[in-house]
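User: Good morning. I'm curious how zinc ion would be positioned relative to this chain. Could you predict the structure with it bound?
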Amino acid sequence: MTLAKDMIGGGRPMRPCSGLGIGCGQVDDHPRHVIDTGTDEDVQFHLDCHAAAGCASCAEQIASRPKNATGQKLLDHLLEQAPTVSQHDDTPQED
Ligand SMILES: [Zn+2]
Ligand SMILES: [Zn+2]
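Assistant: Good morning! Here's the predicted structure, ligand included:
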């Protein structure tokens, strides 16, 4: 388990990027795609990790991000692109 050095902060939850055999395993508070697994434990992936695993939604979200933007920069970008990003980031949803 690796802790990121560039926390966004502001009360955002710390979560691992892991599960379903994908994800990088890093624990941080960066933007996530939350997947409802139908169990008590949802899994969350960085948008870029999930896009790499074939998620069209995440691929679309990061398609126009500044080069290699992560963490706060990616969050800023997402908020600019879609004011409803919080639904994507923190709301469990079918995938
Ligand atoms: Zn990741
Ligand atoms: Zn995704």
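The mean pLDDT is 84. The chain has one domain: 2-90.
Let me know if you'd like a different ligand tried.
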